[in-house]
Amino acid sequence: MKKLTEQEINDRLENFEGWEYSENTIHTSFEFENFKEAFTLMTRIAFEAEAQQHHPDWSNVYNQLEIKLSTHDAGGVTEKDFKMANAIEGIVNAD
Amino acid sequence: MKKLTEQEINDRLENFEGWEYSENTIHTSFEFENFKEAFTLMTRIAFEAEAQQHHPDWSNVYNQLEIKLSTHDAGGVTEKDFKMANAIEGIVNAD
B23-74+87-95: what CATH class? Predict the structure, then answer.
């Protein structure tokens, strides 16, 4: 899986609201109603991550969720990250 | 819930292996076999956190889990954090 250039990343990010590129990752944050809602969404994302065998670097405190995606093997952001970002948006926006 | 002094925190930490006190939190990290194992444990901890209405500041990447506990209302570490830390140890070590 080939590391994308900054231009390729920024082009793709135009289709994603609330996602940014920095420090070799694409990242976003979400705020939910409470912890239970946040963890419910995390669980759905966890199943998707496991299915894609591509796992987020994420942190949670109460209703806040921060997600960073990068492809360690490629040393940067690849199409795998955008596939996962797209799945995350689908999960969060389906709720 | 009263904020504990540094002495009180360090006394209590003697009963916890792998936990440290810094920046007004008690914190630890765990390494699991893979993402599925890590998230399985996170789920058990999430139910406990919800039951105690005391939620961790935690982050995960693949098989790594970092957990920080503090009591925001008290501006530091309280008995609530040690109760939660104790529950987390019970969950992780039961596995």
Answer: alpha beta
pLDDT (0 to 100) of residue A59: 98
**ipTM, 2 dp:** 0.94
Chain A residues with CB inside 8 Å of B42's CB? 42
User: For chain B, which residues make up each domain, given as ranges?
Assistant: 23-74+87-95
- pLDDT tens digits along B57-66: 999 999 999 9
B18: left (phi over 0), alpha (psi -120 to 50) or beta: left
- A6-94 belongs to which CATH class? alpha beta
Q: Give B85→chain A minimum CA distance, Å.
A: 16
Q: Which of B40, B43, B60 to mutate to test the interface with A (most CBs of A within 10 A)?
A: B60
pLDDT tier for residue B95 given thresholds of 50, 70 and 90: low
Q: What is the pTM of this model?
A: 0.95
What amino acid is encoded at B7 in this protein?
Answer: Q
- Residue A47 gets the label, from left (phi > 0), alpha (psi -120 to 50) or beta, of alpha
